[in-house]
Amino acid sequence: MQDEEVVAQGVFPSGEDWRLKVTVRPDNVMTVLSVTRRGSVVFGGGMGGPGLAENETLNLYWGREGDFLGVVVRTAESVAHLTLTVGSAEPTELQLYPIPRCPGVNVAAFGLTVDSVEEVSLSARDEAGHMVETHSLPVAPPARPAETNGGGWTAG
What we know:
Number of strands: 14
Strand order of the largest sheet: 1-2-3-4
Strand content: over 45%
Helix content: under 10%
Largest sheet: 4 strands, antiparallel
Radius of gyration: 17 Å
Distance between the termini: 44 Å
Shape: globular
């Protein structure tokens, strides 16, 4: 059994501290993004399973906790460039990190505070710059808190 290993960490532009952790076992690769804001956990999520699903170029997980959207992407080594576009902003290239003890598979993560953003897109390109795969990730508005009326029922 292998222990959890931090493959990357830093601070997102919105100010949150992040860590990308990997645990590799013979039958399972766990990649998890952990995010804190001013010392409090704001996001924790990721995926397990094979390094990459069979015949896949990339696998991705995204989730939202409150105002924070976190994404973990695992890619085949044929993906040389992974680009993120938030709304109409300029695209940003994401850093790919090799997964220790999982040859041929890289991992990347990103997160952002979302409020009025409606869509995030992800593009994977090979070394020659050819598009390999694209994904559009809809960003749902935050859930309204449940309200109770005097009668005890919940509206939402």
